[in-house]
């Protein structure tokens, strides 16, 4: 697998938002890679976080406050905007 620089990764990557509208739904996890990967190899599995080429790995069920944990070796937490944790199940919900 050949890796490319992760410098292209913007500091403010917005997921679940299209312009001024938030997605009505839930996000289970986010994986950002700096190389092409065969999705079927990782489908329906939690990753270790040390896979070659994995730049960010947000499981979206780990975090607190307005931050969620990056389980990749980068350890760069994500920030929540327009959402909050549901304390009973650690899922995100849209703020009204």
Can you characterise this structure?
The protein has one helix spanning 39-42, and strands at 17-18, 21-22, 30-33, 54-58, 63-64, 67-68, 78-79, 83-86, 91-94. It is mainly β and 96 residues long. It has one domain. The strands form four sheets. The protein has a three-stranded antiparallel beta sheet with strand order 5-6-7, with no helix packed on it. A hairpin with a 2-residue loop joins strand 5 and strand 6. The radius of gyration is 14 Å and the shape is globular. The model is unreliable at 1-5 and 88-96 (pLDDT under 50).
| Oligomeric status | single chain
Shape: globular
Chain-averaged pLDDT: 75
Strand content: 25-35%
What is the helix fraction of residues, given as a range?
A: under 10%
How are the strands of the largest sheet arranged?
Answer: 5-6-7
Determine the N-to-C terminus distance. 44 Å
Sketch the topology as an H/E string, one letter per element.
EEEHEEEEEE
Total DSSP helices: 1
Number of strands: 9
Question: Which stretches are poorly predicted, pLDDT < 50 over at least 5 residues?
Answer: 1-5, 88-96
Radius of gyration, rounded? 14 Å
List the helices and strands and how they pair.
Layout: E1 17-18, E2 21-22, E3 30-33, H1 39-42, E4 54-58, E5 63-64, E6 67-68, E7 78-79, E8 83-86, E9 91-94
Antiparallel strand pairs: 1-2, 3-4, 5-6, 6-7, 8-9
Task: Provide a quick synopsis of the model.
With 96 residues, the chain is mainly beta. 4% of the residues lie in helices and 28% in strands.
Features:
mainly beta, disordered N terminus, 28% strand, three-stranded antiparallel β-sheet, 96 residues, two-stranded antiparallel sheet
């Amino acid at each position: 697998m050949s890796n490319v620089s992760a410098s292209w990764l913007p500091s403010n990557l917005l997921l679940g938002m299209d312009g001024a509208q938030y997605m009505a739904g839930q996000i289970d996890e986010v994986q950002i890679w700096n190389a092409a990967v065969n999705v079927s190899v990782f489908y329906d599995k939690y990753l270790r976080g040390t896979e070659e080429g994995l730049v960010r790995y947000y499981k979206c069920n780990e975090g607190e406050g307005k931050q969620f944990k990056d389980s990749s070796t980068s350890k760069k937490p994500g920030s929540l905007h327009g959402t909050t944790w549901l304390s009973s199940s650690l899922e995100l919900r849209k703020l009204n």
